[in-house]
Amino acid sequence: MSKSPVFLTGCAGFIGMHTAKRLLAQGETVVGVDNINPYYSVELKRNRLKELEHENFHFYEIDISDRQTMEKVWATYEPKRVINLAAQAGVRYSIENPFAYIASNITGFLVILELCRHQKDFENLVYASTSSIYGSNTQMPFTEDQMTALPISLYAATKSGNELMAQSYNYLYGLPVTGLRFFTVYGPWGRPDMAAFKFTKAILAGEPLDLYNSGKMKRDFTYVDDIVSGIVAAVNTKPTNKKGERHPIYNLGNNRCEDLPKIISLIEETLGKKALINPMPMQLGDVQETYANIDKAKADLGYSPQTTIDQGIPNFVRWYIDYHK
Ligand SMILES: NC(=O)c1ccc[n+]([C@@H]2O[C@H](COP(=O)([O-])OP(=O)(O)OC[C@H]3O[C@@H](n4cnc5c(N)ncnc54)[C@H](O)[C@@H]3O)[C@@H](O)[C@H]2O)c1
Question: What is the CATH number of the domain that holds 84?
Answer without folding.
Answer: 3.40.50.720
